[in-house]
Amino acid sequence: MKKLKCIVQYDGTAFSGYQVQPDSRTVQSEIESALTKLHKGQIVKITASGRTDAGVHALGQVIHFETDLDIPLEGWKRALTATLPADIRISEVYFVDTSFHARYDTTGKEYHYHIWNAGEPDLFRRLYSYHFPYELDIKAMKKACSYLEGEHDFTSFCAARSGVKGDKIRTIMKADIEKRGEELIFIFRGSGFLYNMVRILVGTLLEVGQGEREPEDMLDIIARKDRDAAGKTAPPHGLFLWKVYY
Length: 246
Prior knowledge:
Blueprint: E1 2-10, H1 27-38, E2 47-48, E3 57-67, H2 73-83, E4 88-96, E5 108-116, E6 130-131, H3 138-148, E7 150-153, E8 169-180, E9 183-190, H4 197-209, H5 217-224, E10 239-245
Parallel strand pairs: 3-10, 5-6
Antiparallel strand pairs: 1-3, 1-4, 2-3, 5-9, 5-10, 7-8, 8-9
Helix pairs in contact: 3-4, 3-5
């Protein structure tokens, strides 16, 4: 029996999220269906680094699974590419030690959130960036990002009905914003992220950018440990799981 690790890319537009759900199209169900076909009907289960919501995309999702098929690495990539739908792509495949676990071995994740900050929407970016036509103070938002870095209790930036078990203390190593023409890319790299955390961070930073909050307000929001203290949740389609670290 061999264990494989795969880097997975997917366009989340037509999926009801990553995790298997009854009567819904999900990333997990499509990959497991493809693997079952390759294994001649034998059910193969996969484990991912974590789940993503409906509409959220990924360039660097990581999964693992076990197989008894004797296929070389390049053969696996070709076989999966031929079997999977066009909105899922396996970019890399590795053989790993049997002890490897895609979820429990992670040391951090990086998410990018894309905003199209122009008066007119871009037709060809509409599924992959959030159109926000209002003027923004980038300098103020970047200053607000600096208060997010470090270890904090991010309860205020977690969906109220998330069902997260354990504490909500996480470490953000990088919180920054890059401007590329009309596009803004919010970059968050951390030890882990709570449910909807990145989208709530973005929604709150946009309020800073519009002058509705001061950058220093981030400190008070963190201290209050109350979801109502933070801003709105940005929509899912601008969010990308960019990379998983091990």
